[in-house]
Amino acid sequence: MANQKVDDIDRSFYDFRYEEKEDFYRMREGLTEEIVREISEAKHDPKWMLDLRLKALEIYNKQNIPNWGAPIDGLNMDNISTYVRNKADMKRSWDEVPDDIKNTFERLGIPQAERESLAGVGAQYDSELVYHNLQKEVADQGVVYTDLESALTGEFEQMCKDYFMKLVPPTDHKFAALHGAVWSGGSFVYVPKGVKVEVPLQSYFRLNARGAGQFEHTLIIVDEGADLHFIEGCSAPKYDESNLHAGCVELYVKRGAKLRYSTIENWSKNMYNLNTKRALVDEDAVMEWVSGSFGSHVSYLYPTTILRGRNSHCEFTGVTFAGAGQNLDTGARMVHIGANTSSFINTKSICKSGGISTYRSSVEIKKTARGAKAAVSCGSLMLDSKSRSDTIPAVVVETNDADVGHEATIGRISDDAVFYLMSRGVSEEEARAMIVSGFASDVSKELPLEYAAEMNNLIKLEMENG
Amino acid sequence: MDRSNTIRVGHIPALTWNSLKMNEGVLPEVLSLNTGTDIRFQSLPEGVTHKKMTMQQAQDWIIKNAPGQEAERFVAGKVPIYHPQTFGTGLGAEFEEFMNASCPRCDLLEVSEGVKVVGPLSWHIDFNDGNRAASSQIIHLGENASMTLVLDYASDRDAAGLAALSTRIVLERGASLTFVTAQTLGRGFLHLSDIGASQAAGSHLEIVELDLGGKDCFTGIQAEQMGRGAVLRGHMGYMAVEDQTVDINYNVVQRGKKTVSRFDFDGVLSDRGKKSFRGTIDFRNGACGAVGNEQESVLLMSPDVINKTLPIILCEEEDVEGAHGATIGRLSEDMLFYMTSRGIDRKTAERIIVRARLDAVAAKVPVQALKEKLTAFIEETFSDEHAD
Which partner for B189 in A206, A456, B67, B185 could form a disulfide, CB atoms 3.0-4.6 Å apart? Predict the structure, then answer.
């Protein structure tokens, strides 16, 4: 075995970009009512959507910046363009996608992944979907996977109206309100009752534009007894000025259904990633989150699961790696409402080279959640003393008929473990690298690397020749 | 009621979601005093002195004698959340300001360098119905001195009032203090206990705290482990029955190399009892070899209780070991089944298990008479109010 050491994640693979050309439309920077109206007009919104946007803008202007979490002082909305799009329409044939965009996604391995292991794929470039496709046999089962804009004006308009921003209302927090005002792009998925989608669907989000924001909305409804695995990936090239991602994911898991939502986030280090994800889980249904957070300058990311139905269950598995210049505030929230609901949170955090990692969570057992069970396990590994790792987990229990367990550990690489491996002929650097890999493995093994070639490049606990 | 004039206590050093209402405690009433407390010792062992000071003199004493702490406004990477104090305490700056403005005096209890006090020193305060009183004390142990101090305050079960206590502990190099507090106030009392401690190298502090009475209880401990090898061990027992609320803020800042902290919290919630626990282990850069551990166990006895737990670890040093754990839930059905199979009826079995949890903390009280009193208080609470 070659000598190895633990290094920062190599993001050079993602750090390529194409300059905007004349065929791009770019909204002027800032956030005003006029800008919101222009976005709405450009997207041919129905009236109710324009009203929602304007209401959300009003809420945004009244809400305060969070007083907890990583500092976001460097984010100035006056310098952010909220809408950037290629003038070409969304394509359903890969060959028709403009060359720059096509080259971007090909370098990220998306078409290859679609061919090999995905039932459908959506690709968003800046503010709009540029490509969307669903395999015929999956479409024949009645599965709908399309861009949200099409769904809003087609046969699913009423369904969109019933579900859009109902789970994450604009009043939720300032960046949910921002999202409501300027959202653009994203996917709509509907899996009919009893349909089990055997291979995953994937959406990939790429923010190429300098000083821009991406505000895609993902709305997924998995109807009773259905089963879906949805994969989300995101990346961006690095610029000197700030970029913003304030997406929103709303997931409805109906009675007896199962949804796995996997995310590999690898935004560049100039990105403020203020994302909101939430799932509503009905009786006997199962929600699974697999989340890898590796990129961005600042992240606020806490997928929330509301276990509304009896016997519903959720598992959250997450890994966060914070390197130089990163302040990643990640975790999960569980809200138990139904009787006999259960949840398990298992997270690992690694920080090095001055990176800051904060694990933040809450488990709330409401009075109605009799017989609820919840467990939280979070581990943090500090690789040097320039870095910082914090753990802030909250538990609120409002009934006696519940069992909640919580455990957290923080520490360094064990000298004993290093010594043991060295006594078996492994060098110290190799030993440390092996231990770090092992620390993350029970989470990383859950990541669906086999489904998308792009993901092979995301977790780089780089083992370099010494 | 209008709470705009009430004070906030027990701030955590890193905020979380405001919607959880766990970032701090808010007192249910505006604080005011109508009487004082009078602390007298019949006799003191050799090498131990007791002196009364004004609050201004107490402040001057702290500035002159307590090891310098950073008046922090920031934790790296966090928003400014510390309310700077010259000498950090668990309830924080607003309570300190109230005490400085309202408490008539401060008692200074000092143990001279090298003096080992044999046997526990007891300090008892009686509160009467209607009393609204505050007590402030500084406990100072010189190098290699040691002492066990028991602070016991109580009132009649039905009494109402305010009991506000501030205790600041300064341990010099190698000093060792076991500090026991036992509170059995009446069901109408607002109880505030604010402890701040500063530990020099090699010092050892053990805190045993029993919060059993009162209507609303706010207790806070902040320990600054400044010196190498300082050790803090703590065990707290509490119960919240009827409409009692308990609010706990514990914060140990481990700055010195090879410092050790270990705190256990055991509680019982019944009826409409509410409890909020915030516990922080804060490893600072340079605290190589430090170990911190906090464990919480909460027994939930009624469907109307509310339990909030927020165990925090902040870490900016690689070479540390930190851990926290919490177990929150009902009585073990296996245990109850075992006991009922031995002929004990279920209600009695429940009472035995609940009492055992709190008795385990009471057993650490080194004064036999007080230990028996506390055991009887626990027994009476769960016999009278929870029997069929």
Answer: B185
User: Is the CB of residue A402 less than 8 Å away from at least one CB of chain B?
Assistant: yes
pLDDT at A440: 72
Assess: ipTM above 0.95. no
Distances (CA, A) of A443 to A293, A438, A439, A440, B83: 12, 10, 8, 6, 38
Q: Which residues contact A38 (CB under 8 A, 6 or more apart)?
A: A27, A83
Which residue among B313, B319, B320 places its CB closest to the CB of A390? B313
Nearest chain B residue to A358 by CA distance is B314
Contact across the interface for B300 and A356, Cβ inside 8 Å: no
Residue A104's closest CA among A16, A201, A216, A26?
A16
Amino acid at B190: L
Q: Which amino acid, residue A340?
A: N
Confidence of residue A321 (pLDDT cuts 50, 70, 90): confident
Q: Is B321 on the interface with A (CB under 8 A)?
A: yes
Exposed/middle/buried for residue A194 (C-beta within 10 Å: 0-12, 13-18, 19+): middle
Nearest-by-CA chain B residue for A355: B77
Banded pLDDT at A88 (limits 50, 70, 90): low
Provide, as residue numbers in chain B, all residues whose Cβ is less than 8 Å from the Cβ of A380: 313, 315
- Residues whose CB falls within 8 Å of the CB of residue A191, separated by 6 or more in sequence, listed in order: A143, A197, A220, A221, A222, A223, A226, A227, A228, A257
Asked if A444 contacts A450 with a C-beta cutoff of 8 angstroms, the reply is no
pTM here is: 0.91
Residue B211 neighbours by CB distance under 10 Å: 26
B352 domain residue, yes or no: no
Of B161, B118, B135, residue with least CA distance to B40: B135
Number of domains in chain B: 1
Whether B346 maps to a domain, the answer reads no
Instruction: Work out the pLDDT band at B386, boundaries 50, 70, 90.
Output: very low
Distances (CA, A) of B272 to A206, A433, B277: 52, 51, 17
Q: Is B152 a residue whose pLDDT tops 50? A: yes
Q: Which residue among A327, A407, A408 sits closest to B77, beta carbon to beta carbon?
A: A327
Evaluate if residue A453 carries a pLDDT over 50: no
| Tens of pLDDT, residues A330-367 | 999 999 999 999 999 999 998 888 999 999 999 999 99
What element of type H or E holds A329?
strand A327-336
Structural domain of residue B186, as residue ranges? 8-330
Terminal C-alpha separation, chain B: 35
